[in-house]
Design a protein that fits this description.
hydrolase (chains A, B); hydrolase activity (chains A, B); 411 residues; Bact_exopeptidase_dim_dom (chains A, B); alpha+beta; EC 3.5.-.- (chains A, B); homodimer; 9-stranded mixed β-sheet
């Protein structure tokens, strides 16, 4: 599994560092073809679907039982790491290969999947792969979206050999999925900090993203007394501090971040009159997230009012949290218990393909630690021992669901 | 005086708004030549000096008495207003013209001056005009400095007709100046706020300018819990708020401003790890200014330490305050009293040519209100009534010092 993972990272190896493997590009196509080939070697029925996802099926004897899907995404961000998405793809494929070799035909069909795209790193749209499988994405969107070079998603699809003309809006949609299980790196430091090897995801957080525009009065820094100012940056600074305080008081799992702040025409001898900053708020609970947001914005308006500033807020994104399935999560925990992998429950603060599946079937995610929490970088790394532990946990759970019987009540 | 001021604004009128009249350019040369011509019409002996300053002399009968110099600068910032500098130049020239016509030869020589450059808007150096007259600038600097187009100050000087080769480092230096009096717009809102027509400047503030670099750890905004962050922007925000608070507590005339703040690679879903901001601190009292600075920086370091951030501070500028002369200032106040112009004392938060003269001779500044405190902008404006009041005040004081006798004790 580790060798295959290393090999996969050579597709799209970027001379400027890390891996750059973008949807429908040459390196992407080569990677997906290599996976099909490997899956076939492992004895799985493997093929592309209409939009470029790759499936590797291990058919079960009881065809009435809905299949369990397991995998992740094959694309990367620019100069990304070797593990984000790729780990889940390779581990699921190798897990099915191992199970077939060791146990033969399962009762329930198991399918490994390499989703064509998740990151939104080439076109301004994410989850193109899992979105098509679950029905959240449609081909109509492909003609409207273009990459930075002006190539539309539709053209790129065709150039890569996926001509879905005449197949309707959802040519890759799958009905009747029994469950979805995704193995992924944490992309955070909590597992490391708590000395745990396996993370069982409770939910994928919802997100609210806003842009806040604060206007005051730009003035001469020397001739304007402190009491006569309408300093937009001093106001924004108070708002940034308040955001942090309120998030700390709210406690985990809420996070709130000001990641961008720009002072318009910022000059060292001018009192700033125009500042824009972003708010990124995440929580596993939708009402809690909204309430926090409303409370925060109310207080930001109070700050603006007190300081004689104007404030304008625009909501850019509102995605609801997606809870993972308790039954599958408990099974993952039990597997860890059985082989003495220290595990803990935690939310996923980042989006994943699993959030597309959560609303339509029982879903779960298994995390392994990320060294220093680094991701989306060539420095992304997970120790081999942890990669193996995650793999073994996945194999154990897939065995239960594919070959065992107790899973039939769960999913 | 108002007509001549309006006429002067036509030299360098900028199609994009306001006035752009930069040192040694064609419009600058035309403006200075027009001033020489007008001065001659008014009966003043007028000529360029070696670096391009223009003087208009009204010789006094008692040549042992040191001359009183009065004027301002003829250059502007890009898209500047019609009054900043130009008002003092025109008013001083017209004042001498009026005094000569009304009273003939003074006892003490009076000279109007149009300094060639003060703003630093073409070359990275300010006060080229008053600096040469007082000895603070030297020709050696001219070869090292270039404008954005790459033309050196030396080349620009020569192209404008000022070839100072062989004249030594300080070809325009003047010894034995009795006093310097400058009329200028306030570029602030204090006079307006306090319903005063004339401002008598107590001192030109000193300035300390610093750049502060705060480093933390950039991290995923979703997967990094609030308690595990080293957020450089949250830290900088606390520092900005503290700067404002400390300045408010210190009280006038101290001002402290964060005019620029940049989040390196700021992205809405990344906790910022690298922020740089500027500090601009001004006060009329040098020890107070330094003490405030030391206290502030100490507290900024405490904030950084508490938050696990590193902080690096670089001092970019340290200019000492320059006190104006009490005797001249009292004479200005008395003049205002005599003609019922409401006046007040206030510091100048902006730099002026007067700060070059303060250390070498008794100096004073007279301010008139700026509508909405606006300057360095086409929207810069002062009501005609206030321009006239300032002019009349200047005339009154010049009369006392030039024709009267009581001034002889003062300067």
């Amino acid at each position: 599994m580790l060798e295959v993972l290393e090999e996969l990272s050579s597709y799209g190896a970027d001379p400027e560092g890390g891996v750059t493997r973008l949807l429908y590009t040459e390196s992407w196509l080569q990677a997906q073809r290599a996976l099909i080939s490997k899956m076939q070697q492992l004895g799985l029925e493997s093929a592309f679907d209409a939009v470029g996802n790759v499936f590797g099926k291990l058919s079960g004897s009881q065809i009435a039982l809905k299949p369990v899907l397991t995998g992740s995404h094959v694309d990367t961000v620019k100069n990304g790491g070797k593990y984000d998405g790729a780990y889940g793809v390779v581990a699921s494929m190798m897990a099915l290969g191992y199970l077939k070799a060791a146990y033969g035909e399962p009762k329930r069909t198991l399918e490994a999947v390499s989703f064509c795209e998740e990151e939104g790193s080439r076109f301004p749209l994410a989850y193109w792969g899992s979105g098509h499988v679950t029905g959240a994405r449609s081909l109509a969107q492909a003609a409207e979206l273009a990459d930075p070079a002006g190539v539309t998603l539709l053209e790129a699809m065709r150039q890569a050999g996926f001509n879905a003309a005449g197949l309707g809006e959802h040519p890759a949609k799958r009905e009747q999925i029994g469950a979805y299980i995704e193995l992924h790196i944490e992309q955070g430091s909590v597992l490391t900090y708590r000395h745990k090897q396996i993370g069982v995801v409770t939910a994928i957080v919802g997100q609210i993203r806003l842009t806040v525009h604060v206007t005051g009065s730009s003035n001469h820094a020397g001739t304007t007394p402190m009491t006569m100012r309408r300093d937009a940056l001093a106001g924004a600074a108070e708002m940034v501090t308040l955001t942090e305080q309120m998030a700390l008081e709210a406690g985990e799992p809420l996070v709130a971040t000001v990641g961008r702040l720009e002072v318009r025409r910022g000059t060292s001898n001018v009192v700033p009159g125009d500042v824009t900053f972003t708010l990124d708020i995440r929580h596993t609970d939708e009402p809690e997230m909204r309430t926090f947001c409303v409370r925060l914005l109310t207080k930001l308006e109070e700050i603006a009012l007190r300081r004689g500033l104007t404030i304008e807020t625009v909501e850019n994104l509102h995605a609801s949290p997606v809870a993972m399935h308790e039954g599958i999560s408990a099974a993952i925990e039990a597997a860890c218990e059985a082989v003495s992998f220290p595990s803990m429950r935690l939310p996923s603060g980042a989006g994943h393909d699993a959030q597309l599946f959560g609303p339509i079937c029982p879903s779960a995610m298994i995390f392994v630690p990320s060294v220093a929490g680094i991701s989306h970088s060539p420095a992304e790394f997970t120790e081999a021992g942890d990669l193996v532990a995650g793999f073994q946990t996945l194999v154990h759970v897939l065995y239960q669901f594919g070959y065992g019987g107790e899973a039939d009540e769960i999913i």
